Amino acid sequence: MTTKSNKLFEPALVQTALKESFIKLDPRIMMRNPVMFTVEIGTVIMLYMCVYSFTHSGQGSFAYNLIIFIVLLLTLLFANFAEAIAEARGKAQADSLRKTREETPANVLLKDGSIVQKSSNELRKGDMFVCEAGDTIPTDGEITEGLATIDESAITGESAPVIREAGGDKSSVTGGTKVLSDKIKVVVTTEPGESFLDKMIALVEGASRQKTPNEIALTILLASFTLIFIIVCVTLKPFADYANTPITIAALISLFVCLIPTTIGGLLSAIGIAGMDRALRANVITKSGKAVETAGDIDVLLLDKTGTITIGNRKATQFWPAPGILPENLVKAAVLSSLADETPEGKSIIELAQQSNMCISMVAPQGAEFINFTAETRSSGINTPDGLRIRKGAFDAMRKLTLNAGNNFSADVEERVKAIASNGGTPLVVAQNEQILGTIELQDIIKPGIAERFERLRKMGIKTVMVTGDNPLTAKFIAQKAGVDDFIAEAKPEDKMNYIKAEQQSGRLVAMMGDGTNDAPALAQADVGVAMNSGTQAAKEAGNMVDLDNDPTKLIEVVEIGKQLLITRGTLTTFSIANDVAKYFAIVPALFIASIPALQAINIMRLHSPESAILSAVIFNAIIIPMLIPLALKGVEYKPIGASALLRRNLLIYGLGGVIAPFIGIKLIDLLISLFF
Amino acid sequence: MNTELLGITASFVLMLIIGIPLGKYLAKIFAGERVWTDFMKPLENGIFKLSGINPNEGMDWKQFLKAMMAINLLWLVYGFFVLLYQDKLPLNPDGNPGMTADLAFNSIISFVVNCNLQHYSGESGASYLVQHFIFMFLQFVSAATGIACAVAVFKAFRDKTTTDLGNFWNYFLKSITRLLLPLSIVVALVLTFNGTPSSYAGKDQFISLQGDTVHVSRGPAAQFIAIKHLGTNGGGWFGANSAHPLENPSYLTNMVEIVSQMIIPIAMVLCFGYFIKRKKLGWVIFGVMMIGALMLLIPSISSETGGNSAIAKMGIAQPTGAMEGKEVRLGPTATAFWSTFTTIVSTGSVNGMHDSTMPLTGLWQLLGMMINGFFGGCGVGVLNYFIYLIIAVFISGLMVGRTPEFMGHKVEAREVKIAALITLLSPFLIMVGTAVAAYLFTNHGNADWAVKPSAWLNNPSFHGFSEMLYEMTSSNANNGSGFEGLGDNNIFWNVSAGILMILGRFLPIIGPVAIAGLLAKKKFIPESAGTLKTDTVTFGLMTFAVILVLNALSYFPALALGPIAEFFSMPK
C-alpha cells in the first residue's frame, strides 16, 4: 500500500500523540492503568509539596521539589505518549484503508427492478446495488449475480485484477475497489460503521479496546508489585523515624515511582495496540486483540495445499502413451478433450501439447459436444460428430469405463498411474471410445522457500497440516517434499472440522485459513480462523481475522505477530523489574546517608549527593520510557530457537541487561547533574 | 580440613544420604505403592474404620482445604483452653502457672502452625501435660498437615486433567505412621542414650561447688526434641532450645538434630519429581534450593569464624571465631551451619544465640526466613517455592511468546491473582508488623502497658531494629526462632506475632493448593518445541532470579536499616 510508512515517528502523528498525552492525564482514563495511576497520585502530591516547600522548610528546597514534580509529570506524559503514538499509528493505518471508501454514488436496485442513485452512506444491510465496468464499489457486499474482474489494489496493493463471481467461494467484494469489466449485482452485507475495518479501528482507538487475557494477568501481577512497593515506601517512614532519619516526601515518592514497574506499566497498552497495528500492516484485520494473542499460542496449522504449499494449480508435465499407441494419437485426443476445459489443468494440457512440436489442430470440430466434469463420472471430454468419444479423468473412473465396455485395462497403464502418483503427480487417464490411449501426468509445483518456512514453524513447535483433495499417495509425496508434518487427503469440508476437533480435544490450539462457505464451520471451530477477504460473507463472519491480501501463507506471519506481542510484554516486564536493583542502590543510601554515614558503603555507584542520586534515579526512570517506545512499537524479535534457548537469550538481554543498564545510566545522569548541584 | 569443617561436612553428607532415598520412599507411599512399612496398614485401617473415613475417597481442592482447616481449628480451640488452665490440670509436677490469655493465644497458634515461637520459657512455662499432649502432639500433626497439603499439589500434576487431589486424611495419617512416627522413635532413642532426659519426674536439684542450690528441669524431653526437628517445628523442651546441654548433649546429638530437621524438606522436593514421574523437575528444584542454601551458608560460616571486629579492636585474639552466644563444645562453625539451615527450613531451633551472631549472619538468617522456600518447612517449603515457580512460569512464558503453562496447564489471570496475593502477603505482614512496632517504640515508648514499648529492646539502634524485624519475619515464616534480645512476652508481641503466624501459615497453604486445583482442572496441553520446559537448568535459573529479585526488592530498605547498617557501622 502506498500510504504504508515504516517510519516510527511521523511528524503529523507525533503532533496528535503529544496532544493526546495531555488529554490522557485525566484520572478517569489513567485509572485503567493501576501502575501509572499511582504515579499520577504521586505527581499530585509533589505538586502540593512544591507549594508547601515554597513557604516551609524541612522538605527540601523549592527547586528540588519542583524538579521532582516535573520529572514525574514527564514520566506520566511519556507513558501517555507511548500509548498515544501507538494509537495514532494504528489509526493512520486504518484511516488509509478507510479512505478508499469515501462517499461514492451507488446504483441501488429497488424491488420493482428500477435503479436509483444513492450515496454509499445511505446503503443499509440487505440493499442491492449494481456495478458496471468503471464503477467503484460503494460498500462491502456479496455478489448475487454475475462475474466481474475487479481491481483490488486500493486494499491489497496488488495490481493484478482478480475475478469475483456469484455463487462460488470468491463472491465477496470490498468497498473502494473498482470493477474493471462486466456487471455484477451485489447485496450489502454490513450496516454502515459496522464493517470489519470499522471494528478494527475501534479496537485500536481504545474506546472498545478490551484487555486480552494475558494482559489482564500481567496487569494483576504488576499491580501486586506496585502494592509491595507501596508497603515498602509507607513502612519506610516509621523505620526512618526509628533510625532518627527524616525522609522528605519528595524522596519517598521518588523511591516509590522508581520502584514500581513504570517502564512496562507505561508501555503495556502501547505494546498491545502495536501488536494489532502490526497485524494491520500485514493487511490482516483482526476482530479482537485476543485473536492476535491466541495466534502466538497456536500448535497446529491447517494449510490448504493449493496456493499455500504449491503454486496455483497442477500443470501437465508429460504424456505417457499406452503400449501400442502412437504418442501423437494420445496428444491429439488429450487436446481435443481439453479444448473446452477451462480449468487450469485443462489449459496446461494444451500448453504442453503446443510445446511438443507435433502438428495438432487446436480447433474443435464443428458440432462437437463437450462433456463437463461431474463429481459422479469424475471425467470430462468431448463427443465429436464423427463418432469419437474422448474422455479423460481419474484412474478408477476410467478403468470402470473401459471394463464396463468390455475392454481390458492395460497393466502397463496401471503401473504408470501408480508411478506418477507415488511421485506426487496426478495421473489423468485418456480414453477414446472406451479404449485407453495413455496417461497425462500432472505435477504440483511446490513454492520456493516454503520448506524453510515449515522448518521455522517446526522449530516454533507448530505442527503443519496440509489439506488437499488429492489422493493419499499424491498427498503424501507433496507433504514429504514440502516438509509438512501431516496431511489430510481427499479432504471434504467435514474432514477439516473433524481434524480440528480431534486436535482441540487433545488440548492443542488450531489455526486455519479458508474462504468458502463450507469452510465457515471449521473457521468458527478453529481457535484462529483467518478468512480471505475474497471469501464469502459466511466465512468472514466465522473467522476471527480477515486477510485483505488473500494470501494463504499469511497465517505464518500472524503467528509470529502473536508471539512477538507476548515476548515484548514479558521482556519489558523483566527489564522493568530488573532495573529496580540499581535504583535501590541509588536511592536507599541517599535516604539514610545523612544520619547513618556508614551506609555510604552501599552507594556503590559513588553518586555525588543524596539529591543528585534521587534525581538521577527518577530521571532515568522517566527517560527509559521514551527510549523503549520504538521497541514497544516494533516488538521484540522472535527467534525460533526453541523455548529454553529463547528464554536464555531474553533473560540475558533484558534480565541481566536490565540489571546493568540503569547502573550505567544513573551514573551518567548523576555526573551531568552534579555539575549543577 | 579442621574438625569443625569436617563436622559440618559430615552432617551435610548425611542429610543427602538419608534425604534422597527418603524422597523416593515418600513418593511410593503417597502413590499407594507397596513399601516395607506396609505392616502399619492394619493400624491405619483401624483408625480409618474407627473414624468412619474412606481414605480412597477423592477430594477436590475445596473439600481438601475444608478438611484441613476444620481439624486445625479444632486443635486451636481446645489447645487454647488447656494452656489457659494448665495449672488446674494434671501432670504439672513443677506447679507451673496457667498462661495469660495473650500468651496462650500466641503459644497455641505457634504450635498449630508449626512455628513454635515460644514466648513462654519451655521448662518453667508449660506443664508436662501441655508439653506432651498439646505441644508434642501438635508438632506431629502440624508437620503432617504441611506434608499432606504438599502432596495434594503433587497429585494435581500427576494426572493430566483431574479435580481429585487425593484424600486429606489419607495423606495426613500416612505422613505420621509411615514417616514422622518411626523416624521420631529412632531419633528419640539416640538422644536418650546420649543423655537427654526422658522421664516424668519433676525438677532435680544439686548443690554446686560454690554451694548454690541448682534446680535442674527435666521431663520427657527426648521424644519432644526428636519430632521438634523431624517436623521442622523447632520448639524446645527447655527455654534455651538446643543450646541447652540436656537438649543437645554432644556433638553427635548436634549432628543428629541438624540432620533430622533437613531430611524431610529435602525428601519432599525430590518426592515431587518422583511422584509426578518427572524426576528431573525434582532435581532442578533441589539444585536451585541447594545453591540458595549454600549462598546463605558459606558467608555465614565465614563471618562467624572471622570473629568480631569490635573485640579484635580491644586487642583480644579470637582464634576460634566469634564466640559470643556460642556453645564452646560446638563452636561457631557448627552454629553458623545450624543457623542457616534452621532459618531456611523454618525449624527455628537454635544451638547458639542468633542475637549474638555477626550482623551479616543475621542478614542471611533473615533472608533465609524471608525467602522461606529453600527447602522450607515440612511440605510448606515446596508450597512456598511453588508460588515463586508460578510467577517465574508466567514471566518466562511471556518471554518465549506463549501463554504461560505449567505441566501442560495454562496459567491464567486467576492463578496469577492468587500467586500475586501470596507473594504480596509476606512483605505486607513483615513490613507492616515491623513498622507498627517501630512506630510504637519511637512514638509511644512510655505507653502505660505492662511492658512499656521502650523496654522491648535490649540493644537499641540498628540491632534493636533487627530484633523487631527478626521477630516479625520469624512469625510470618512460621520459623519460631528469635533474636532473643527482644522482650516478647507481652500483649503487643503475643498478639501481633500470633496474627502473623496464623496468616503466614494458612494463606500460603491455601494459595498453592487452590492454584494446583484450578490448574489440574484445565485441559492438558501436550508439550511441543514451543513449550517452555520447567525442568531445565535455564528455568531453574529463572526461578532463582525471581526468588532473589522479589525478596531483595521487598526487604532491601528494611535490611539496610537493620543488619546492613550494623555491619557497616562496625569498627574496621
Strand order of the largest sheet of chain B: 1-2
What is the approximate shape of chain A? elongated
**What fraction of residues of chain A sit in β-strands?**
15-25%
CA(first)-CA(last) distance of chain A: 53 Å
Strand content of chain B: under 5%
Biggest β-sheet of chain B: count, sense, barrel? 2 strands, antiparallel
The number of helical segments of chain B is 18
What is the global morphology of chain B?
globular
Tally of separate domains of chain A: 4
Alpha-carbon distance between the two ends of chain B: 28 Å
Mean pLDDT of chain A, rounded to whole units? 85
Mean pLDDT of chain B: 92
Poorly predicted segments of chain B: none
Tell me the count of domains of chain B.
1
Q: Give the beta-strand count of chain A.
A: 21
N-to-C SSE string of chain B, H for helix and E for strand: HHHHHHHEEHHHHHHHEEHHHH
Oligomer: heterodimer
Subcellular location (chain B): Cell membrane
Main location (chain B): membrane
GO cellular component, one term (chain B): plasma membrane
Pfam family, one (chain B): KdpA
Chart the SSEs and their pairings.
The complex is a heterodimer of chains A (677) and B (572).
Chain A: H1 11-23, H2 27-30, H3 34-55, H4 62-98, E1 105-109, E2 115-119, E3 128-131, E4 141-151, H5 153-156, E5 162-165, E6 172-173, E7 178-181, E8 184-188, H6 196-205, H7 213-242, H8 249-259, H9 262-281, E9 284-286, H10 289-295, E10 300-304, E11 315-321, H11 327-338, H12 344-355, E12 369-371, E13 379-383, E14 389-393, H13 395-404, H14 411-422, E15 426-432, E16 435-443, H15 450-460, E17 463-467, H16 472-482, E18 486-488, H17 493-505, E19 510-514, H18 520-525, E20 528-532, H19 537-542, E21 545-547, H20 554-592, H21 610-634, H22 643-673
Parallel strand pairs in A: 10-17, 10-19, 17-18, 19-20, 20-21
Antiparallel strand pairs in A: 1-2, 1-3, 3-8, 4-5, 4-6, 4-7, 4-8, 9-21, 11-16, 12-13, 13-14, 14-15, 15-16
Helix pairs in contact in A: 1-4, 3-4, 3-8, 4-6, 4-9, 4-21, 7-8, 7-20, 8-20, 8-21, 9-20, 9-21, 10-20, 11-12, 20-21, 20-22, 21-22
Chain B: H1 3-31, H2 41-51, H3 61-84, H4 101-112, H5 122-125, H6 128-158, H7 168-193, E1 204-207, E2 213-216, H8 221-230, H9 251-275, H10 279-305, H11 309-313, H12 331-344, H13 359-371, H14 380-399, E3 405-406, E4 409-410, H15 413-443, H16 461-476, H17 491-521, H18 537-569
Antiparallel strand pairs in B: 1-2, 3-4
Helix pairs in contact in B: 1-9, 1-12, 3-4, 3-6, 3-17, 4-17, 6-7, 6-8, 6-17, 7-8, 8-9, 9-10, 10-12, 10-13, 10-18, 12-13, 13-16, 13-18, 14-15, 14-17, 14-18, 15-16, 15-17, 16-17, 16-18
